[in-house]
Inverse folding.
């Protein structure tokens, strides 16, 4: 299926590893030129080289932290008028809310709510003027089912979700859609660090906890970054112009709700 976005340009944040990399790979397969960002130059260049090897597209790299003003400025300098924006940033650490002071909350909100909003603000009017734009925010399944030890993430990402619910209804008539992808357990560094955190808390090994979690998931496994990227690519497609303000949960059926 041709997604109708060949030759477009996508700015994919935090794309050197994990879910961001999955999105970058899927968009590259569709012929989308990329500007990818990450904090670590080595992993970023390795991912860029991998993409260039397999796909005949242009790939630019920007080293920087997208949760900072300097990181956002650098990304937008390299991609001032993207057709597609994939917002992504690592989540705040797990813990007990009693341990988090105001600075911890502000840092979480800056990274996982305010930063993506500012990125959207920087590019959305250009998308509207060109009559095409796709924004995908990588948030978390915790927006649907909060995870106790991830309270900072629960709060910040839910705030972003509420903001997007309103904004997305004002841009869609211009063929600019804004949607959220909500990952559950995917094979990423973030998942592995959370397994380690909870294993120590429960007096188990991370491998023991992994077995318990995979067996408890209806799919019997964790997701892959390729599956996640494919979903992102579809939301960025020409065919997805009637989908906006939605929260697509990808968790192997782990969330037990009807709605």
């Amino acid at each position: 299926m041709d997604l109708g976005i060949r030759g477009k340009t996508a700015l994919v944040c935090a794309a050197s590893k994990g879910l961001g990399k999955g999105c970058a790979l899927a968009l590259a397969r569709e012929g989308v030129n990329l500007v990818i960002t990450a904090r670590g130059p080595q992993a970023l260049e390795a991912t860029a080289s991998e993409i260039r090897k397999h796909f005949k597209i242009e790939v630019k790299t920007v080293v920087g932290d997208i949760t900072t003003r300097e990181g956002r400025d650098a990304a937008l300098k390299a991609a001032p008028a993207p057709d597609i924006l994939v917002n992504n940033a690592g989540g705040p650490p797990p813990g007990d809310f009693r341990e988090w002071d105001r600075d911890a909350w502000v840092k979480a909100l800056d990274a996982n709510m305010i930063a993506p909003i500012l990125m959207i603000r920087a590019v959305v009017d250009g998308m509207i003027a060109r009559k095409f734009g796709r924004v995908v925010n990588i948030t978390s399944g915790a927006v649907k089912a909060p995870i106790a030890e991830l309270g900072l993430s629960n709060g910040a990402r839910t705030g972003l979700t509420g903001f997007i619910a309103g904004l997305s209804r004002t841009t869609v008539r211009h063929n600019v859609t804004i949607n959220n992808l909500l990952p559950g357990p995917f094979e990423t560094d973030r998942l592995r660090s959370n397994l380690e955190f909870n294993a120590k808390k429960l007096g188990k090994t991370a491998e023991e906890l992994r077995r318990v979690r995979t067996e408890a998931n209806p799919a019997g496994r964790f997701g892959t970054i390729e599956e996640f990227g494919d979903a992102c690519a579809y939301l960025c497609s020409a065919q997805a112009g009637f989908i906006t303000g939605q929260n697509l949960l990808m968790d192997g059926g782990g969330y037990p709700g009807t709605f």
